[in-house]
Amino acid sequence: MLKRLLIALLALAGVAAGTSLGFWQWGRAQQRTALHEAIASRGALPPLSAADLKAAGEGADLLHRAIVLRGEWVAANTVFLDNRQMHGVPGFYVVTPLRLEAGQGVVLVQRGWAQRNFSRRDALPPVQTPAGTVEVRGRLAPPPAKLYAFDTEEKGPIRQNLDLARFRAETGLALLPLSVQQVGPSSEGLSRAWPRPASGAEKNIGYAFQWWALAALIAILYVWFQFVQPRRQARRP
């Protein structure tokens, strides 16, 4: 009797855990979907300007909004972020500060991707940086994702990562606390076929059904071995 009770409790715990984890993953999927839809709706809003950034203030959440900026490239401080891929090909994300017109600060712009020289790893790709005033169309985006690297301060044009606060102190530029990802057709030796952010909800939905399937399997096995099979054996002559 005690053994049957223990088996029942374990089966109940397994079913409850699987069901609960399934609903938790389902909830995560709904959150991710809502966030993805919010990002898409922000991208459809009219483009911001440098004046809009200044008026919004530092604490404003403007990520993923379209933006149009005018200014001059600070070409001497261009950084080539290594080990970045586009369509499965390794290369660099090219990042250049843009000094905005009318003294409105400096913005770090992710200008695009360039393939690396595989025979000379220290060679810089042939990227053109126009002089004078330029107009940059893009979207407000988080800084480039950080890759694993030793916690040492990186210097020079080729780097693994770029820390905004350290870069601001290193260059003395009045960098705004945001980053712009330039969009548009390929130009200046750069490709801008940025990967589109996916919601990731599909994985959570898959995990949810896996947990629910496990809970159903535990319930089926419990009923089979504790009720169905004993009754079938009892009926045999």
Automatic annotation (TrEMBL):
Membrane topology per record: Multi-pass membrane protein
Q: Where are the transmembrane segments?
A: 209-228
Q: Name one Pfam family in it.
A: SURF1
Presence of keyword Iron: no
Quick one: where is this thing mainly located? Answer: membrane
- Keyword Membrane (UniProt): yes
Compartments it resides in? Cell membrane; Membrane
Q: Which UniProt keywords apply?
A: Cell membrane, Membrane, Transmembrane, Transmembrane helix
Q: What family is it from?
A: Belongs to the SURF1 family.
The name under which this protein is listed is SURF1-like protein
The species this protein was found in: Ramlibacter pallidus
List the lineage, top down. Bacteria, Pseudomonadati, Pseudomonadota, Betaproteobacteria, Burkholderiales
